[in-house]
Amino acid sequence: MERFPIGIIAMIIVSVLIYLGLAQRALDRMRLSDRGALVVIAAIILGSYINIPLPFLPFNTSINVGGALVPVALVVYLLAQAGTGREWVRALTGAVATAAIVYAIGSLINTGPTIEPAGRYAVLDAIYLYPLAGGVVAYLFGRSRRSAFIAATLGVLLVDIFHYAWLLYRGAPASYTVSIGGAGAFDTIVLAGIVAVLLAELIGESVERLAGGPGVEGRPPELVKGLKKPGIGAPSVLEETLNAKKDSEASVKEQIKGGDLGEQE
């Protein structure tokens, strides 16, 4: 019996968390709305079943919509939302580091004869090791939720692209079939992105709270304003409403008091 892709299961769980409002803080940091995130998840799940054939190649090659095209589009959007050039550097450097670690795990740690780089088809069924390692490395380099996600997803996808380039170089037979971003690579890309964001959320949030809020020195005013979310040094919408109501009541009382004094005079 063919197993249900763990990546799709993870996406469904994330969708439930978003629907319940439990992922609001992470989405805010990534400049994603609940609706936008759910649309992306739906595109990833549906796209995982769609492979676009690439013509004029020596063997059967396709690119998976949910595991390659949608993540790349999301990465481009997140990079466009990056507040500083330093975040770009962290995200892209983290992607290269993540790719190197995932490749090293497949080629070096998983010992034994492998005829392909990173042992893509030999060991990728150990589906939890790659995203865990990739997610940790992506967080260490990216630090922010946005950069960590970019580094994780793009890093794993780079390994898959390198594998494809290696097959072209070695001259794989015409009967060979490759789906870039599909099969086990899809699960790894999805899980690595989730692990990276979870680490950034859990560890990063704890550090921010201990420090009294996110650092604002040297950051653009718009980015600082975006960082000022409820619980991180700024009042919530409810608190702002209550404060405004109190100010209004105080103003009315002062006016009434002033009117009474005027009548007494």
TrEMBL record:
Taxonomy, superkingdom: Bacteria
Pfam families xref list: DUF1614 (PF07758)
Keywords from the named record: Membrane, Transmembrane, Transmembrane helix
Region annotation Disordered: where it falls in the sequence: 245-265
Biased composition (Basic and acidic residues): 245-257
Keyword Endoplasmic reticulum: no
Membrane-spanning intervals of the chain: 6-24, 36-56, 62-80, 92-109, 121-141, 148-169, 175-200
Name the record gives this protein: Hypothetical membrane protein
